[in-house]
Amino acid sequence: MFPTARCLSAKPAGFFKRSADELGRLSRIAWNTETLHTPTKPYNLLDFEDDSAITGCKTMADRAVGGFSTANLDYIPADSSTGSPAHARFHGNISTKLPDNWRVERTGYAAFRNQDRGIWIFGRLYWDLDPYTYLALRIKSDGRRYTVNIQTDSIVETDIHQHRLYTRHHHVRSSDDYLSPSSSPQAVESPGIVAEKYPNGIPPSLSDVPPPTTIMSSSSATSSGSTGWETILLPFNSFVRTNYGLVVEPQTSIIRQRVKSIGIGLTDRVEGPYDLRIHRIWATNGMSEGELEEEQRICGANALPLDEGVRTGWTGKPAETIENLQENKDKNPKAKGLKGLRDEWD
């Protein structure tokens, strides 16, 4: 049987389309010699304005072991009346009720992630995020304590690097809630469970209190306007290595060259509904001028500010100097790609 044009263009993308897309992307990088400098443009990973990104994801919940939590990922079209972009809605209900199975001791979790990206002509397809500093997410949260999960092609396949998804409306749990039982519905983990999950103490990136090194600087911040949408930048080097929800030692950095999947989970074990909206997930080195218009349109007046490092190309020179250099470059355009590189060598 021969593949038809309809099969080749079907969603999610098939083998030939994946190969063509990846070859095209790598060819553009090589031709423009983008690997010789720090990227200033974002690298889209999951763009939920395209409904095919929904079909390329899978949901998970404790129902797989007999629990009663639910997880759904739906496509929501753009709404011009509210200015809301097309996005994915991750929603469902968390239940801590135990099934009639003595092997299951804990329930109350739900998550989603992209499915394996498949293979192309040179083997299994991964995301290469090595040139980037941050994982960026544009979301609209209900304030629950979500976790961002990254899985790589590591030696231990079940290892996941995690980071708390801090938002403007993030529900903060006090340190006393972790250390002693409480009647508060937010304090659901016993001291024994906390000691098992965090034998060396709660890592800053998984704590309920956002660490200043993660979100307080202008180049890595959480912001949202009246629209409820906000953009969050999480440094890759702040993610914590875990296995089945437990922090493991020794800690290792994310293998950014071979990222298999990215997703979001909810494991706070607080019963009730949850609702998280996700517009886009991408890798970046900071907010560029090209992204600023979309950021302000979606997030409103308190949108994430322009990153001066991206604007100036991390040269340390004033922006005005960079603009003058750009004007001179426009007047005397230089060849791009391999020809431009050859001219520099000559």
From TrEMBL:
<dbReference type="InterPro" id="IPR008979">
    <property type="entry name" value="Galactose-bd-like_sf"/>
</dbReference>
<keyword id="KW-0496">Mitochondrion</keyword>
<feature type="domain" description="NADH:ubiquinone oxidoreductase intermediate-associated protein 30">
    <location>
        <begin position="47"/>
        <end position="171"/>
    </location>
</feature>
<feature type="region of interest" description="Disordered">
    <location>
        <begin position="321"/>
        <end position="346"/>
    </location>
</feature>
<feature type="domain" description="NADH:ubiquinone oxidoreductase intermediate-associated protein 30">
    <location>
        <begin position="227"/>
        <end position="278"/>
    </location>
</feature>
<comment type="similarity">
    <text>Belongs to the CIA30 family.</text>
</comment>
<keyword id="KW-0143">Chaperone</keyword>
<dbReference type="InterPro" id="IPR039131">
    <property type="entry name" value="NDUFAF1"/>
</dbReference>
<dbReference type="InterPro" id="IPR013857">
    <property type="entry name" value="NADH-UbQ_OxRdtase-assoc_prot30"/>
</dbReference>
<dbReference type="Pfam" id="PF08547">
    <property type="entry name" value="CIA30"/>
</dbReference>
<protein>
    <submittedName>
        <fullName>Complex I intermediate-associated protein 30-domain-containing protein</fullName>
    </submittedName>
</protein>
